[in-house]
Amino acid sequence: MKPVRARRLPTAIAPLSLALCLVLAGLLAGCAGTPAPDWRINAGSALQRMQQALLQGKDRVATNEYRRARDEVAATGRPDLVARVELLRCAAWTASLQFEPCEGFERLRLDAAAPEQAYAAYLRGHLDAGQRHLLPPAQQPLAVAPQGDAAQRAALQATADPLSRLLAAALWLQAGQAAPEVIALAVQTASAQGWRRPLLAWLTLQQQRARQAGDIAEANRIGRRIELVLQGRDG
Fold it and tell me: Distances from the Cα of 78 to the Cαs of 65, 82, 83, 111, 114, in angstroms?
């Protein structure tokens, strides 16, 4: 049985985003060279499915997988690990321009460790400079928006992980610092991944900006894209 376990673990985590790897780094710590407990493997698989379902707009699937992942991690009695599950869920919502308080994390805040506190502050747009080093390395350069269209686009394009890219773009937008090119790149990123939820959010924003600029033809073109994305939506 041990060889089977050893093969299953990397298969479960190989395609995950950096945000999900942040969670799994805590869940899988200390298991190198030894078979992982079932809860770790089950939680990792459920988290991957939860993240994808949230971004694809499949709410029922996302809710079921979230509950499964949280139940598996809660069996450890470690609030810091459960906090990471909550933060991953909230990151997907934030990347989709839904800037709501991360209530699941707030219930665990008193027992959350410094990295989780920092990530929660990042999602709220309240990250202190002294907390930046606690973020995942790939997200540290994105914690502050560069000045100008070209610099912002270059910073986002240098980030290989699409969720981290969308998350940074969303937080820059919330802070009123996002250059126009950021919206176009966010649309392109969500479209390439087939992530219906953030794509609809960013397309809607792009359409609003086109209308404000008086570009009715462009607004109508974006509207046709929105209608296409809405086809076959699974709520």
Answer: 19, 7, 9, 9, 14
Q: CB of 41 within 8 A of CB of 82?
A: no
Query: Contact at 8 Å (CB) between 136 and 22?
Result: yes
Q: Distance (Å, rounded) from C-alpha 82 to C-alpha 200?
A: 29
Q: Where are the domains of the chain?
A: 2-230
Distances (CA, A) of 165 to 85, 127, 205, 223, 231: 20, 17, 17, 24, 26
Q: What is the pLDDT of residues 185-209, one digit of tens each?
A: 999 999 999 999 999 999 999 999 9
Does this model's pTM top 0.90? My answer is no
Who contacts 82 (Cβ-Cβ below 8 Å, separation ≥6)?
70, 73, 74, 108
